[in-house]
Specification:
Length: about 550
């Protein structure tokens, strides 16, 4: 059914950031029913403008006579306001503009997302258009920085046949972020190519708790030739993205990273600090305004005095770093909460939204964890002001929205974001049922992770309810990948916990569809692809497991 257009004016006109924000708005509204959104200077229904009195990333929605004015402190702020406008509007009979009014100012300075760009997961193989649109979608939830890596761990060297394609994809991600007006961050450490000479390799970590990770391709920075190779490789990597611009680096200690030689150990209190200062200097030489995020991932696991040594080092000189990143596999580290953040620096998190209670990662579809994320956030919301959720793909899109809004407003509950997500991405009339499905799916994952008996009745209920919801959704939602991966997860939970398992024809068809959505390689030479590929029976891994 044709609907009347909604008229929009831009103030100012002709600026790339504002034009991009309008294009994002037009496309999202078109997708949800076809309402045309057209520019019109006279008598607009919606005004998009910038207001220098607002903080750069803040926005305000207010009446301006008969029109609705969306003002941002910058074009990026306008884009964030468009996200709120879209999520609180309705689309059942044309576009009904949002009734929400007010001013919203983000509390977290670094609201990032980490794309684990490896293993031929979705981030590594998605098309330019898919990457661009997905980064736009994350921006609409308030994300301001995209971090990724160059997958050295998977490559023999710069002349590896996969090295150039991997660089192309890294550049695609950064270019897409820049096109939307977001910042970029690159992960660095002492992990180098697989072809690194054996005599330069780091001494493997003891890792008695199995938390640090050992890739086998780490290099010892206490060896002069090892330090030189790390810095030369880092410089070459940074130069390959210099034309795009780089806003920050995140220096990583463990998983992957580390060295246990007598000159480096304990790593986080010794070799890592020396290397981090060197890497920061290398980055600043090419990008003078570069911000440095210093990760403490799995520090003192087990205790080795790493946190205390970092505190003492930054008390002497904190000029080379800007943020401290901390997190863990389960509960948040106690040191920065109980003792304080080393150097008194801003603290950011690295929540694990992808892997917990989930193997292969995303292998049975959507993986929503609202209750778990709320519990973990309640530990840190008074002190954490941003971070980089760890993501292996698009299957935890719900978790991304929840954490991004935590960073925007620490007091905002996961349940409120989840309801807003379901209203926007699916349909308000189905939200209560979808929330019930999600609650059951999270319970299934939690019981499986803790090896508790899974409730077959709940799994069956979630699958049946998702089937019923699908018939009530508008076509654009029912056919979209966000609903598909959620519905497929409900189907697969019903099959594996209340049916014949993942070997049934129904389950195999659902896994096949997930492989299509993720762009998985059914036959692969990637020894790690099985970690991110649904467990389809006909899938073949010629190297490694799976």
């Amino acid at each position: 059914m044709a609907t009347n257009p909604v008229t929009v004016s831009l103030e100012p006109r002709g600026t790339p950031g504002m034009e991009r924000a309008l294009a994002v708005l037009q496309e999202r509204v078109r997708q949800r029913g076809g309402t045309p959104v057209v520019e019109a200077e006279a008598q607009p229904q919606l005004i998009l403008s910038t207001d220098s009195r607002l903080p750069a990333e803040a926005f305000r929605l207010e009446q301006a006579g008969p029109a609705l004015r969306l003002a941002g402190g910058s074009p990026r702020g306008v884009l964030y306001g468009i996200g709120k406008l879209l999520r609180t509007s309705r689309y059942e009979d044309g576009w009904t503009l949002s009734p929400w009014r007010g001013t919203s100012i983000p509390q977290g300075a670094l609201r990032g997302m980490y794309f684990a760009n490896h293993f031929h997961n979705w981030y590594q193989v998605a098309s330019d258009g898919e990457i661009q649109r997905y980064i736009e979608d994350l921006a609409l939830w308030g994300v301001n920085t995209i971090m990724t890596i160059y997958p050295l761990i998977n490559l023999q060297g710069w002349d590896d046949p996969e090295a150039a394609p991997a660089m192309v994809q890294l550049r695609r991600i950064f270019a897409a972020a820049k096109q939307v007006g977001l910042d970029t961050c690159l992960g660095l450490g002492n992990v180098l190519f697989n072809g690194t000479p054996a005599e330069l390799r780091a001494t493997p970590l003891a890792d008695p708790l199995g938390r640090h990770g050992n890739s086998g391709t780490t290099v010892c920075p206490s060896l002069p030739a090892g330090r030189e190779l790390i810095l030369a490789t880092t410089t070459a990597l940074l130069r390959r993205v210099a034309d795009l611009g780089l806003d920050s680096i995140c220096i990583w200690p463990y998983d992957e990273g580390g060295c246990a030689c007598e000159h480096c150990r304990p790593w986080g209190a010794n070799g890592f600090l020396r290397l981090s200062r060197d890497l920061a200097a290398t980055g600043h030489a090419l990008f003078p305004n570069l911000k440095v995020v210093l990760s403490t991932w799995t520090f003192d696991t087990p205790p080795e005095g790493e946190w205390q040594a970092l505190t003492e080092a930054l008390a002497r000189d904190r000029s080379w770093a800007d943020f401290i990143l901390a997190d863990a596999h389960e509960d948040y580290p106690r040191y920065p909460l109980d003792v304080g953040v080393p150097g008194g620096m801003p603290l950011v998190s690295f929540p694990e939204i992808s892997m917990w209670g989930n193997w292969p990662w995303g292998g049975v579809g959507a993986h929503p964890l609202p209750a778990r994320l709320q519990r973990l956030w309640d530990q840190v919301r008074q002190v954490v002001r941003g971070g980089f959720p760890y993501s292996e793909g698009i299957y935890e899109d719900i978790n991304k929205a929840i954490v991004s809004q935590f960073y925007w407003d620490p007091a905002l509950a996961a349940a409120a974001t989840l309801r807003e997500y379901c209203d926007y991405e699916f349909a308000p009339q189905a939200t209560d049922d979808i929330l019930a499905v999600i609650a059951n799916l999270e319970l299934n994952a939690s019981q499986q992770y803790t090896r508790a008996p899974t409730d077959a009745a709940r799994a069956r209920e979630a699958g049946d309810l998702a089937d019923a919801v699908a018939a009530r959704l508008p076509a654009w939602a029912r056919q979209g990948w966000r609903w598909l991966i959620l519905h497929l997860r409900a189907i697969l939970d019903r099959e594996r916990f209340a049916g014949g398992g993942l070997q049934t024809a129904t389950a195999q068809a659902a896994l096949e569809r997930l492989c299509e959505i993720y762009h998985c390689q059914i036959e692969t030479d990637d020894p790690y692809h099985h970690r991110v590929r649904p467990p389809l029976q006909r899938a073949v891994s010629r190297k490694g497991q799976g």
